[in-house]
């Protein structure tokens, strides 16, 4: 059974008196252990699709099934529960609590998901952040914050990962290190992954690619 199933998804934005169609009838299925890269130019709907799949944005028509449940009618509490326990999301800007250290952010994320995961320091070390666990988000670089956000997702052990430009703020060497760890963890957990990226090298490491640039 597909972990993510989309049928006939339609999404239109209003722009003054005009309407802009982002999705005119998108179909998609993704099973356990599979990865999908969303590619296409800016404005083609990559981030919009990720936001729809984690309940941060609505859609006009169609059907979405996550983990076997239709999401039509899901309210804010149901979506919040999914993001807390089953859907790990990494945004373009790392979503860290500024008043907590990197290690505390990771520990809190695991606790909210109800998991007894590895020590936060271990996750940080696996992503090249060894020794930075007691620093606060404003004491590290943007790329280091992004890696800490990925460590938070690993620690929660989700059933689905959604990522928006996960290596966009990283240099090539670090991006490769992070991608290696991401796909290693994803293969071990058999966790489906959907990522939006302009990085074609990263996209080619995924099982499937969906080019949203030409419409659906």
Descriptive report:
It is a single chain. This protein is an alpha/beta fold. The chain has a single domain, classed as 3-Layer(aba) Sandwich (Rossmann fold), CATH 3.40.50.300. About 35% of the residues lie in helices and about 25% in strands. The protein has 7 helices and 9 strands; from the N terminus they run βββαββαβαααβαβαβ. A 5-stranded parallel β-sheet has the order 6-7-8-3-9, with helices on both faces.
Number of helices: 7
* Secondary-structure element string: EEEHEEHEHHHEHEHE
The overall pLDDT average reads 93
Classify the beta-strand content into a percent band.
25-35%
Helix content: 25-40%
* 3D shape: globular
What profile does the largest beta sheet have? 5 strands, parallel
CATH superfamily: P-loop containing nucleotide triphosphate hydrolases
How many structurally independent domains? 1
CATH topology: Rossmann fold
Counted beta strands: 9
CATH class: Alpha Beta
What CATH architecture label applies? 3-Layer(aba) Sandwich
**Low-confidence parts, pLDDT < 50 over ≥5 residues?**
none
